[in-house]
Amino acid sequence: GAGVSQSPRYKVAKRGQDVALRCDPISGHVSLFWYQQALGQGPEFLTYFQNEAQLDKSGLPSDRFFAERPEGSVSTLKIQRTQQEDSAVYLCASSPGPTNEKLFFGSGTQLSVL
Amino acid sequence: LAKTTQPISMDSYEGQEVNITCSHNNIATNDYITWYQQFPSQGPRFIIQGYKTKVTNEVASLFIPADRKSSTLSLPRVSLSDTAVYYCLATEGVRDDKIIFGKGTRLHILP
Question: Ramachandran region of residue A108, left (φ > 0), alpha (ψ -120 to 50) or beta?
Fold first, then answer.
């Protein structure tokens, strides 16, 4: 595809449910980032991959959050036992190489936990 | 990672030139200044990047003085569609595992 694709666009979950958010980066892009954006705030870093290697996961809020990119392309962000405070937009971004000077973002997945 | 400080919000009028200033007092030698634009319900979009002096593209200009402790994003002749949040970032030019966004500047263009 022409850009970063995220699915689903919207997700409503009951508290305690597990959710999986998908990111399809631009083909061939080496780096992949996940961000969490609360309403009215800037994107908060969650985790970063270079190919299939997760190089930084320091931004993941708790051990309920897990991300993977097993083949160095598509990535999945999984949230277990969702809580209301997990409600946010989850953004995925990719960049062509290890020098991350220009990120290409998807439109995000808006997660609402009821 | 250099911390950046920018105004929370700004208003301007259609047709005006808008300048958004960003402070980054502890910028490192390897850091570049990068600006992103974000519209509602969309992810941020790269606008421009520079290291020093002036950079211009079809969207904006970026001015960085010699001491590099601040930078100014200049949007010429804004229109209503330029209403968005603008983020200033300091990112290491060689490699950066963690690209940090602040709260950005909410720019509101009035008719």
Answer: left
Among residues A86, A89, A97, A109, which one has the least CA distance to residue A32? A97
Q: For residue B1, what pLDDT band results from cuts at 50, 70 and 90?
A: low
Give A45-94 pLDDT, tens digit per residue. Answer: 999 999 999 999 999 999 999 999 999 999 999 999 999 999 999 999 99
> Which residues of chain B are within 8 Å of residue A98 when distances are taken between CB atoms?
95
Q: How far apart are CA B17 and CA B1, in angstroms?
A: 30
Q: Do residues B92 and B31 lie in contact, with contact meaning Cβ atoms separated by under 8 Å?
A: yes
Contact B104 A108 (CB under 8 A): no
Q: Which of B42, B93, B99 is facing A45, going by the closest CB pair?
A: B99
The verdict on a CB contact (< 8 Å) between B97 and A48 is yes
Confidence of residue B102 (pLDDT cuts 50, 70, 90): confident
| 3-class DSSP state of B81 | helix
